[in-house]
Structure formats: structure tokens, C-alpha cells
Structure to design on (257 residues):
């Protein structure tokens, strides 16, 4: 089957490239588009081909299409999916978070955003009941390096926006459950984020390193979303430490979000 998956993925990649080529007649591009849509809607190999495209293609557009397949699979089929495929998707996504993207200074933003979006869709369906280790796994990813830390911030930011701010999670009960779990773990999350901010902002100030600056910006973005709805006690804890830290960051033009 692995050979079949590779062949199908290669055909999909070629179709994606064809649809994006303005030199190709419109009718052929339309046919290729329909081929891609038919695959997304009907193929039982969506998750396997999606991961294959993300891992094997050098084309950002093709990799993004692979991620889009995965998002559609999770949204449309998760509740009817067999347990083995759920485990495969979850494990493979965490591997992508760990080592499946380019370095944070060169990877395309739309790739990072697409990957984070899929992880959040998984969180909406699995956490905390079926994924109690989520926060620990995110912490482990952050310990691997700046690239992984930025991706984790993208995930947390989108999760908070979807569940607490924009309230785009359609199932009211699931939104309440995730909101409650976020609230219950907020002290841990704040401590986690503050530790990361101290680490990366300190490294940025010491070296001027672009990587640490970008990670610091991502952490501040996440804090910005959190402080809009969390209990004020978290913001004012430890003698208003968070406010003092954020005020200090205002002295750096690159972090004045």
C-alpha cells in the first residue's frame, strides 16, 4: 500500500501544480481542480496521502494542499474514524510539529498556520478526555527548540481564539468542556508561557538573535489573547509580574504589538 500511496500522492501533487500554472489552459486546470476535490471528498486514503505530500514535496503549495486534506479529514470523518487511524493522525501530526517544517525563519507562514489549525481541530475533538497529555506534549515540543516553540504558540493562540474569544466551535458542549479545561489549567499555562518568555527574550536581548525575537513575539501574541478573558488574578499574580514584564517589552520596538 505504501507504493500506492506514493503514486497517488505524486498524482495529486502534479494536479496541484497544474491548477496553479497560468500557462496551462483553463479547461485543464479546471479538470485538475475537480480531480483534487473528488479525492478530498471520496478517497479513503486522505490522511496517508496528506502526510505523504507534506513530508515528501518540496513545493510549498503542494505541502499546503496536503495539510488541507488532513484538516478536511479531521473535520469531516473524525467521529466515524476507526481508532487506529485516529492514533496514526495524532502521532503523525505531533511528528510534523516536531520535525516536519522548515526552520522558523524560512518556513512559510501559511504552512505554519495550516499545521496549527489541524492540531487545534484535533484538540477540539480529543482534549481533555482522550488526550490528557496534551499540555505535557506541547511543553516537550518547546524544549526541542525555537521552531517547535513558535508552532506551539500558534496552536495555543488559535485554540484560545476559537474557543474563548471568537467562539467558533459549533458544538456548545465541547466548547464549554474545553473552556473549562483551559480555565482549570490557566495557572500552569501562564507559568509555562512566562518561563518561555523569560528564556527567549533573555536570549534575544543577549544575542540579538532573530529566532528568539520571533518566538518572543509569538509568546506575546498568545498572552495578548489570553488576557482578554482570563480571571484577573492570573494577570495580577506574583506582584503583577506579567504586567511588569510586558511593560518592559514595550521598550523594544519589535515587540510593540
Amino acid at each position: 500500500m505504501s507504493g500506492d500511496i506514493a503514486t497517488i500522492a505524486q498524482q495529486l501533487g502534479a494536479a496541484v501544480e497544474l491548477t496553479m500554472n497560468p500557462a496551462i489552459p483553463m479547461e485543464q486546470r479546471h479538470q485538475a481542480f475537480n480531480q483534487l476535490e473528488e479525492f478530498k471528498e471520496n478517497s479513503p486514503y486522505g490522511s496517508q496521502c496528506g502526510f505523504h505530500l507534506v513530508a515528501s514535496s518540496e513545493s510549498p503549495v503542494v505541502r499546503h494542499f496536503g495539510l488541507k486534506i488532513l484538516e478536511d479529514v479531521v473535520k469531516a470523518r473524525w467521529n466515524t474514524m476507526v481508532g487506529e487511524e485516529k492514533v496514526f493522525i495524532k502521532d503523525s501530526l505531533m511528528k510534523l510539529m516536531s520535525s516536519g517544517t522548515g526552520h522558523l525563519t524560512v518556513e512559510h507562514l501559511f504552512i505554519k498556520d495550516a499545521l496549527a489549525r489541524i492540531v487545534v481541530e484535533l484538540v477540539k475533538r480529543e482534549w481533555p478526555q482522550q488526550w490528557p497529555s496534551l499540555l505535557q506534549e506541547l511543553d516537550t515540543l518547546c524544549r526541542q527548540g525555537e521552531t517547535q516553540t513558535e508552532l506551539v504558540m500558534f496552536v495555543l493562540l488559535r485554540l484560545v481564539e476559537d474557543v474563548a474569544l471568537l467562539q467558533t466551535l459549533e458544538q456548545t458542549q465541547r466548547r464549554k468542556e474545553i473552556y473549562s479545561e483551559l480555565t482549570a489549567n490557566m495557572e500552569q499555562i501562564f507559568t509555562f508561557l512566562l518561563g518561555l518568555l523569560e528564556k527567549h527574550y533573555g536570549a534575544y536581548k543577549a544575542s540579538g538573535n532573530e529566532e528568539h525575537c520571533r518566538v518572543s513575539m509569538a509568546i506575546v501574541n498568545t498572552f495578548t489573547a489570553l488576557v482578554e478573558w482570563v480571571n484577573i488574578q492570573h494577570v495580577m499574580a506574583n506582584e503583577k509580574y506579567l504586567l511588569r514584564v510586558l511593560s518592559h517589552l514595550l521598550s523594544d520596538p519589535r515587540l510593540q504589538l
Notes: The longest helix spans residues 186-207. Residues 19 and 28 are 8 Å apart (CA to CA).
